[in-house]
Amino acid sequence: MYESFYGLERKPFQLIPDPKFYFGSKQHSRAKAYLEYGVSRNEGFVVITGEIGAGKTTILRTLIDGLHGSNVVTGHLVTTQLDAEDTLRMVGAAFGFKVKDVPKSELLITLEAFLISQTSQGKRCLLIVDEAQNLTMRAVEELRMLSNFQFGNQALLQSFLIGQPEFREILQRPEMEQFRQRVAATCHIGPLDRDETQGYVEHRLKQAGSTDKPSWGEGAFDAIYKATQGIPRRINSVCDRVLLLGFLAGRTQLTADDIDEVVKELEQENALPGSRLKAAAPSALPASGPDSRPGDLPLTSALPLDVDLTRLALDAGTADSVDRHLARLSAEQRLDQLQRLERGLLRLERVSVQTLSLLQKLVAAIRIRPDDQALLAAPTAADAKDDAVKPAEATPGKPADKSVGKSGDKAVDRPAVKPVDKPAERVTASLAVDKGSERARL
Predict the structure, then answer these.
(1) Which end of the chain is less packed: N or C, by CB atoms within 10 Å?
(2) What is the pLDDT of residues 311-355, one digit of tens each?
């Protein structure tokens, strides 16, 4: 919008990380050197941490661009709010594997085979994990286990973990001792100092094609450093808005007063939605009841405000900016609700599948096979012989039947056999008849 006014070729202060605008401050140069050392060492983990907007991703992209055409195969993992197994699948996807519906064991075998194949071709594999502070303990452990893959005495995979300062606290936990022993180097990126802030602004303008415009008045860089505390992303936000202010005013000379004016505008834009929500908080709380829980918020988007809206004086640009910000917050809230609902449904589906599997195993265990059923139902040969030559067992109150054998033997009293319906009882009765026949012969 204002590029031609200042004679620029591109926007100098865009928020998207761009390696072309990499500024080698003392801390950024040190972090980049650590990453290059890790690449040359080809083993273990390198951990880089820094504040939000400190320039971590810019360093990463600068490193990746420098590795193009080399023998290093990189996999970049940027989605880290996952459980351990999903993190492992994302690692496979980063190296181009098919990971959908693939068991974990098969995924590990495929990953190891890929790493061995690349190593045998003289290549090295590097995994870059961004936003590492979102990794769970189990996910970090899975990454550590991947470092155990070896081909002879050579490690097959090296990993760079980039995250915010809280990741350093995670690594200091007692259960992370094994992981800490695998860390080859660690570095923290802090904010720029005052002189580096000025050098950063001038460097980005030069990279965008600036020659002599814009010019900065006395105290302008001091005001920028005071407002941003040396955080590169904040510097980009302030300077981009200051250039816009100068363009709208038709001035290429930017002063400290311009910086202060922009800072106040940014504070108002960022503070107004929070103030409205804070004013609405007392009336937005749901009434307590048997189904209410602490922290629950009403699903309605209409929050009553204890504010006289007629006294608010907002220009059209600020009002549009506030409206977009509120719409984005509302959309993010709905997205979080949908993600929680989706995770709950997935857990319910896994429980249902496991329950169905257990029921199928239980039915298979107690089911009588057809062969066993026929064996129980069919009479034995001894049963058939006894039925042919032996009389039925006498029942109480009835005389015993008399029977003569084929050899003309004297008739003997033999008990009548009680009718048997069940196969198991038939076998028991047959045994009883055999014992009675034996006694009669004696």
Answers:
(1) C
(2) 556 666 676 676 776 777 777 677 767 777 777 777 787 778 788
